[in-house]
Every structure is written in C-alpha cells, then in structure tokens.
Amino acid sequence: MKSFWKTVLAVIVGSLILSVISSILALIVLAMFAAVGSASSSVPTTGILRIDMSKVQIAEQTLEDNPFASMSMNGPEQKSTIGIYDAVKALEAAAEDPGVKFIYMTPDAVSGGMAQMEEFRIALEKFRASGKPVISYIENPGNGSYYLASVSDKIYMGSYHGGMNTMVGLSSQLVFLKDLLDKVGVNVQLIRHGKFKSAGEMYIKSEISPENRLQYEAFIGSVWKSMAKTMAESRGLSVEQFNSLIDDLKLNCPADFLAASLVDALYTKEELEQQLCTLYDAKSIKQVSQIPFADYVTSKVTPNYRAKDKIAVIYADGQILDGKEKREVTGDRFASIIAKVRADSTVKAVVFRVNSPGGSVVASEKIQNEIALMMKDKPVVASYANYAASGGYWISNGCDKIFCDETTLTGSIGVFSMIPDFSKTAKNLAHVNIVNITSNKHGDMYSLMRPLDAAELDYMQASVEDIYDRFTSLVAQGRGLEKDYVDEIAQGRVWAGNDALEIGLVDQIGTLQDAIEYAKSLVGAESCQIASYPKPLSTVEQMVEMLGGSDDKDFVFAGTPFESTVKAFREATKGEVKTYARLPYDIIIK
C-alpha cells in the first residue's frame, strides 16, 4: 500500500513539475515571438513612400503584428493594421520629410471601412498640396480601390487583359429567414419601436418592408453620391458622366478606362518600373529606394512624451455588449476606462471616437452615464467613423460637438427585443412534447417553448416604449432639439453623414484629426500628447487570446454583416431576453 501511495504521489508531483515547466517554456516562446514581432528593420531615410494595400489595412487603432499569423504556409500574407490617426500623422510627416520624393500606391487589395478610406484619402490630398505627387497603379479596380486611386496625380493601369472591374456601384445584401423558420416551426416574436427599426426583420419577414427599402436606398445613395462626386471631380468629369460610365457598363477592359480618362496610361510591369525610374531619376528599378508605409509609420509616429497635457482619444470600436470581451465595447470595462480618464488631471479634453453599430441598452446606459460625468469636468468631442448608430449614437449624442464623415452611418434611434418560440419545432420536427410547470401565471413566458400571450406582448412592448422614450429624450437633450422632432427623424432610421448633418444629428463633416484639433482649441493645448484608450492588444495578448480560444470560435456568422442580429437571436435562444439598440446588420458597403 505504501508503494502505491508513493507512486500516486510521484505522479502528482511529476505532473505539477511538468505543468510548471510547460508554462515557463510557453512564456519563453511567447516572449521570443513578441521580440521578433517588435523588431523592425532599418527604414530607408530617402526614397518613395510605398503604400501597398495588400500589406496594410487602415483601421481605428494600430495593432502590433502577430508573428503567428505570418507562419501560415497557405493563407494570404498578413496585413499590418495601422490606425487612421497614425496613418494621417505619417502622411503629414512625409509631406515635410525631404527624404520622401513621392508616394507610390497600389490600392487594389484595399480593405477597411468607408470612413477610414475617406479620412485616408483626405490626408493624401493634403500630402499632394505640399507639392509632392501621388502615383497609383491598379489592375483590378473596385469601388474602394479606385476611390483611393482617384486622389493621385497620375493613375496607371495594367495593360493586361483578364483583369476584373468591380467598380459597378454600391450594394448591400439583406437576408430574410421567415420561410425557412416556418418550415422548422420557429416563431420569432419581435417587439420594437420605430417603423425603420429593421433589426430582427430577417426573422419575421420574407421580403423587405417598404420603410426598410426606403432607408437603405437613401443612405446607400447618399454614400455613393459622395464617392462619385469625389472620383468624378478628381478626373475632370461631371457626376452624370461618371455615373453613365458605371450604369451603362462602359468600363470593361483597360482600354475603356483609358478612353474614359479614368486612367492616364496603360503599362506592363516593366513599363511601370521604367516610369518610376524616370520619376525618381534613376537608371534601374534597383536604384529606386522604397519605404514601406507600415515601417514609416512606426519610425515617424511617436507620442510627444515631453508634453504634460494630454488629449485623450477613447476608441469605442465594436459592438456594445455586456460582459468583458476585450475586442468589443463592453459596458463595465468602458465605464471604468472613461472614469479613469476623467480622474486624470493631465487629460484636458477628450475625443470620443465611435465606430459602433450599437448593441446592449444596459451597456449603452453605463457608458453614456460616464460620458455625461466626464463632460462636467472636461470638454468631450465626438468623432464618428463607419458607424455611430443606435447604441453607438446613444452613448455619444450628448457630446459638446459631433464630427462625422460623409460616409458615416448614424442615427438608428430605435430599440427592439425578440423572443423565439420553439414549441412547434420541438413537437413537429423533434417529436418532443414539452410541459411547463410554473408557480405563477407568467412564470414560463421566457421558456421559449410557447408563444407569448397578449398580456405578455403588451408587457414587452411597454418596456421597449419606455426605453425608446429614454433614447429620444437623451437625443433631444443632447442635441438641443424638440422631442417630437427627434421622434420624427428617429423611428430606427439610419442616416448617412451629409443627411445626418442636414437634420441636426451631427454638427460638422470632419475627420478624427479635425475633432482632435477642435478639442485642442477648446483648451488651448497647442503642444500636447495624444493618449489613446483602451490600449490595443499587444502581440503577447493577441497570442494568448489565440491560444486560449474564443466563445465565438465556431460562430458561423462571425465576421459577416449579420453577426450583430444573429448574435442577439442566439442570446434569445439561450433565454437571455434583452432589449437592444443596434443596427439591423453590420452594413458592409463594397
């Protein structure tokens, strides 16, 4: 028996030692990869600033490169994620840098939101104003890639046949699941306020509602109007001429782009290299020094640590959720971050950068309450990116001033809740009979195994109406508008930037940089440090998160336009009945 217990003890001790050793080795490996990821090669001091959109992605905040991502043998090359503020500051530095001769951009593989592209393009325009040219080369033009390329002094296009033109206008795709749900016996009970509040419609309708079609056509048309005007004017065309080229499908092969004056010349790779040599005054392409944009950002964009005063930029980037998810805007976490910034006496003003389609009402309330407290101590300026809609608008509409881009989607002032009923699915499809035993009359109303009765629907509707009244009251107070007027422009409707400005939801069309400069002017902070919150995940944190996995790892809709609403539906199927202020979809305009 003693021998047995000795063996057991030895096994336990051995397992513990092995576990400790494994943990130490894992930490060493993580540290090694972090060191590799943070190491950067020397950046040329003179040359062409090379912006290759297949290698960089413009996002809200700069992220450290994840060295694990580059280990894939089959996947695409990892893109460096550069925050829009850092990207703009790098272009400002390049305009003043005598070592940067001009910008050479290949925008074909551009990815990111329309607002980031709009702000990046504006920064490229300012770079050109310094007297240095921007040259672009495209092979497969699309809406986003040509929008960026159109800022250039010269646009060159591949002379090769077989390239694909996807510059055919904007579209957004909606999916309706009622017919499918009817077949499997799922009855989704949607409770909402707002005739335009289409979140959840995908579960109760087979076709788009007239109101939903109206709002989609309006904001997609408004975003395209802004883009088309910009692209047409840059090439000396009228908007009517430009739209005619698109609508009549006149842009097919490269020669069509040249004939329409959308590009300046057609080149093979060798001819393009010769042109770059001519512009650079070099005899061969090997003599043309190219500075990768991501490396230039790293070398040129550093905080001004000498400045005592700070302008804080708080990035609310993602869905507004309950819980502690680090990659989303979670209520308790963000309330804590805002409270910390408020208590920091070195922070003189705050820019609240919102890029959110909305989400949980409870989380939105927590964040909005902290912003309201912040405004008692410091000025708070809002800057809207791709979205500041529904909950995203809830948390920020009371700020001292609101900037947004022309392509921003905002508004969506409305709320909804939904409860699926699986009783028919259980009985007719799974052949399972469910019996609910309750202590009270409505004890099983959230069981998901029977439809709500009239009193329960009234109860849910009363809750939605109360929250909608709270939402419209906040907007009326925050924007200095009559509540009846807010109700008129609300109803869950989504508005594009220019339209939002016209009806008073925002104050000015402007970039994140404009908002920061305005915040500086409010407190007279000419020299200050720009401090970002929350801090982006470090390389080690990204790797730890990757190794640890995620609750949504197997979520089939993750990363799709339907993620927000499907996630709400999934929460409802787990009995987590909540009220939401969020967009119907994460609207992706390509």
Summary of the model, kept short:
The protein has 590 residues and is an alpha/beta fold. 44% of the residues lie in helices and 18% in strands.
Task: For this entry, give a set of tags.
single chain; 8-stranded mixed β-sheet; 6-stranded parallel β-sheet; 22 strands; globular
Q: Compute the average pLDDT.
A: 86
Tally of DSSP helical segments: 21
Report the strand count. Answer: 22
Decide which structural class fits the backbone. alpha/beta
Which descriptor suits the 3D outline? Answer: globular
**Major beta sheet, specifics?**
8 strands, mixed
Q: How far apart are the termini?
A: 72 Å
List low-pLDDT spans: 32-40, 550-557
Radius of gyration, rounded?
Answer: 27 Å
- Please report which band the strand proportion falls in: under 5%, 5-15%, 15-25%, 25-35%, 35-45% or over 45%: 15-25%
How much helix is in the residues?
Answer: 40-55%
Can you characterise this structure?
Mean pLDDT is 86; it is low at 32-40 and 550-557. This protein has 590 residues and is α/β, with parallel strands linked by helices. Helix 2 runs parallel beside helix 3. 44% of the residues lie in helices and 18% in strands. Strands 10, 13, 15, 16, 17, 19, 20 and 21 form an eight-stranded mixed beta sheet that branches. Strands 8-6-5-4-1-9 form a six-stranded parallel beta sheet, with helices on both faces. Strands 2-3 form a two-stranded parallel sheet. Strand 15 (380-389), helix 14 (391-394) and strand 16 (401-404) form a beta-alpha-beta unit.
